[in-house]
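Hi team,

Filling in the usual template for the complex we talked about on Friday. All components are listed, including any nucleic acid strands or ligand strings, so the model treats them as one assembly.

SUBMITTER: L.P.
PURPOSE: interface mapping
COMPONENTS: two
RESIDUES: 222
SEQUENCES:
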Amino acid sequence: MTVRVRYFASLCDRLGRAEDRLDAADGLTVAGVWAALHREMPLPPNALAAVNMEYAGLEHEVRDGDEVAFFPPVTGG
Amino acid sequence: MRIELRKAPFEPLVELERHQRMSTGLAGRCGATAIFIGTMRDFNDGDAVQGMVLEYYPGMTEKYLRRIVETASREWPLLEVLVVHRVGELRSSDPIVLVAVWAEHRAPAFSACRSIMEELKSKAPFWKRETTAAGSRWVEHNTPG
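RESULT (copied from the run log):
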């Protein structure tokens, strides 16, 4: 499967890019997507994740064509 | 219901007046209007702040703002809701957010306005990066209220 992975705010700055494309075997979770792309950097404990623009837990299973996003706590308003 | 993201500065009271005038169902029915306006301060965490950039997640931000307003509309009897939120580069004293709620009575107007604002703060994907004399930094968390 192929997923588009996006990063926002401080996470985007730390990684030095706004997105990745991941080709992986089926059955990967959100946590697995991060681990597959960032072996040297654990996901920051306060980071949030979304799948197809819906908040998702780290154990949420990702499907082919999904858009996965990782970002820090939100600070709008 | 109207929800807008704005890349340029906006005048909350002008928006409010315009929206109220266009919402023809309010005349004679609306007995209470509750308004929240959030404005950019020139200080944060003990430092002078010169400017700010508001980043968002196009698509998800609008989706969550809409959902937050729809949830409030189910919980309280509301006549109309307006949410305007800035994105992009802001300067000190720029309005950041306007939440306006029209209802027949003050209790649902006050409660829904507060609830929409708190939900927006905790769920809508926006991120602030502020510029201080020492450079720019991401705001790591919102103030409790």
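MY TAKE: Strands of chain A lie at 2-7, 19-23, 48-51, 54-55, 67-71. Chain A touches chain B at residues 6, 8-10, 13, 50, 53-55, 69, 71-77 (CB under 8 Å).

Thanks, L.
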